[in-house]
Amino acid sequence: MNRSNRKHFLVAVLFALALLTVALSPLSAQLSGSYDSWLDFNGDGIIDANDLQPLGQAYGASGDPTRNVNVTNWPVDRPLFAGNLVLRATRYGAAATIRELVDATTTPSNWYYTRTSDSVSATLNTTQTGIYNQTFIYERIPTDSYQVLGIPKVMLTFNLTNSPSASLLLSFVAWLGKISMSGTWTQVAWLGSENFGQIGALNSYFAGVNIRLTNPVNATINAYERLAIRITVQGRTVSGTTNLDLWIRFSPTTDEFVVDIPIAQNP
User: 112 Cβ partners below 8 Å, 6+ apart?
Assistant: First the structure.
C-alpha cells in the first residue's frame, strides 16, 4: 500500500471511530442510570451483558405477566404467654396482704406464703349476704396487646364451719378483668357462678367449685394492662340463722385455686 492509500485508510478509520462514539453515547448515558434489581436477572448485583442472555433466549415469548414473588423473611412474633395461661393464687408482702396470680415461672420464696387462705366470718339468715370480695392480679405487664379468646375457667377450693345447724346456700362468682397502670379495675367478662348447698352443722368441711362459661370470651387486653380475677361469695340460709367461717384456699404450688385463661396473640 503506497503512502496515499495509507493516508486515506487512516482517515476512514478515524471517521468510523467518530461515528461509533456518537452512536454509542446515548447507550452510555442509559447505562449510567440507577440500579434496578428487576433488571438484574442473574442477581449478581450488577446490570451488565450477562443479564442479556436470558432476555435473548426468551425474546418473542408471551404469557401471564404476573410476577411470582416468594417472601422468606417475614418477622417472627415472640410468644407472649402460653396458649393457655395457667395461674395460681397467692398472697405476698410483709403481712401477706397483696393478692396475686402467679404462673409456673414464679419461684415461691419467703416473701410468698407457700400455703395460705383468705378467711371470713359471717352470720347468715334467709337474706342474701355478701361474704367475700377479693381481686387477684397477674403482675406480668405485657408490652403488646393480645386477646383472651376461648373459655376461661376458675377452680376454687374452700372449707367451712358453721353452727348451729342450718341449710346453707353459697354462691361463688368469678369475673375476668384488667388493671390499668394506675390501678383501675375494668371488668372484661363475667365468667359465671357456681352454687354450693349443705345441710347441718359442718366442721372444717372441704369442697370445691368449678366456674366456667358456656360461650367463649373474645376480649382484647391492651399493652400495659394486667389480667385480674375477682371472686365474690354470697350466702344465705333456707331457714333460721347460723354463724359461718369460710376459708378460700390457695397456694402458688398447689391446685387449690387455679385460673386457666386461653390466650391468642396479635388481635
Answer: 90, 91, 92, 102, 106, 252
Q: pLDDT at position 81, please?
A: 56
Q: Please report the domains of the chain, with CATH numbers, ordered by start residue.
A: 3-57 (no CATH), 84-265 (2.60.120)
Residue with cell 380475677: 229
Strands 129-138 vs 98-102: parallel, antiparallel or unpaired: parallel
CB atoms within 10 A of CB 131: 20
Q: How far apart are the first and last CA of the chain?
A: 88
pLDDT the model gives residue 18: 43
> Which helix or strand (DSSP H or E) is residue 239 part of?
none
Q: Which amino acid is at 106?
A: T
Which residues contact residue 180 at a Cβ distance below 8 angstroms, ignoring those fewer than 6 apart? 186, 224, 225
What are the backbone dihedrals phi and psi of residue 7, each rounded to the nearest 5 degrees, phi first?
A: -65, -45
Q: What is the 3-class SS of 16-43, one letter each residue?
A: HHHHHHHHHHHHHHHHCCCCCHHHCCCC
pTM: 0.68
